Task: structure prediction
Amino acid sequence: MQSTTDTNPAAKILPDAASNLNKKEQVAEMFNNIAGRYDFLNHFLSMGIDKGWRKKAIAETAMVQPGKILDVATGTADLAIAAASLQPDQIVGIDIADQMLAVGRKKIAEKNLSNVITLQTADSEHLPFKTGEFDAVTCAYGVRNFEHLEAGLKDMCRVLRSGGKIIILEFSHPTAFPVKQLFGFYFKFILPLMGRLVSKHSRAYTYLPESVMAFPQGQDFCRILTNCGFKNAKAQPLTFGICSLYTADKQ
Result:
């Protein structure tokens, strides 16, 4: 198994440093524990801005007129559901957290999208799909949690067709005054407190800011995408750099 701690310092950030489980197992356990409250917290703690971020990701996805989309680390399927507006033939969402997928399946059924979107348990490093099977691969707030970042990105590249596109949303941290200071205070103190009170999970929303601050962003992440077989990697900061939208093409 390829280790990527050199290019991904966030690989060393664990939900529970005292646990005997590896990072992948810890991440799955953490998201399974907060699955029932994840959507509420996601929208509440981002003050609803996350909906606009997903719209921008879908607009980028639309550029390849995808017939078949893979959503990696789909969680409760928010991005997969948003992608249904593009009217593709099929959307497949994968995740390692079964309880998150269970919430996603309920949402999909309520929106009568079960004929378009299917969810399954799978690992980004070992995607159970054929080479070149998808027109677009999307991922929202998931790559930061990969245990082996480059292994996951390379397999995402493998399942893309030639000329296909990867679209990634990931949290980042602002660098300009005074947003940097305001965001830092909210992210390090307010968000973990509110997250802990609502989710009842002692570490999930402390792990979030720690992993975001450690994860390579901007051009650093674009270089990793290029090293993993993509071309034309671009980074677009959103909302003063709180989130970043990354896009790249399959060579």
About this structure: The chain has one domain: 19-250. Residues 19-250 form a domain with the Rossmann fold fold (CATH 3.40.50.150). Strands lie at 68-72, 90-95, 117-121, 134-140, 160-171, 230-238, 243-250.
